[in-house]
Amino acid sequence: MRPFSRYIFSSFVFGLWFGLVAVTASAETLRLRADLWLPYNGDPAAEHPGFAIELAKAIFEPQGIKVDYQIMPWVDALEAARAGKIDGVIGAGSAELKGLTAPQESIGEPRVVLLVRKDNPWQFDSNASLKNVRMGVIEGYTYWDSLDEYIKANKAPKIVTFLGRPRLSMGLPS
Length: 174
Description:
single chain, alpha/beta, D-Maltodextrin-Binding Protein, domain 2, 3-stranded parallel sheet
């Protein structure tokens, strides 16, 4: 097992881990995976692949640690990190950390936003307001505790689950 295997690279909890990894690794490759989640991580071939990736490269590459960032479905990325096949994932929330080690500091704090069409008057005020709403979610994502519980309790047709695979039109690996 490599010195930094089984650690999670998270947009929510991210920071001191860099120092720990940089001290223990030399001439290594840090394998990071995630699905697309801009502005944190995007197209690996882009000049600006997302600020979490750019930050990882700025910290690790001057120390001789190559950052190998690739897109993969979120559920698969979490599974690969838990199995030690990759070194980390980008953007995991606290509910997704089972079996992974997370640092104590954050580089960002995303907000979950529920969106509707412009002509739709619906507004969220509690999970009860979701009673007559059909909602799309991404497989394996966590949102906030009470919404995660609502999603688990209310399957199709109320909840439409998307697989979170990269769009092939972007030319990204699947």
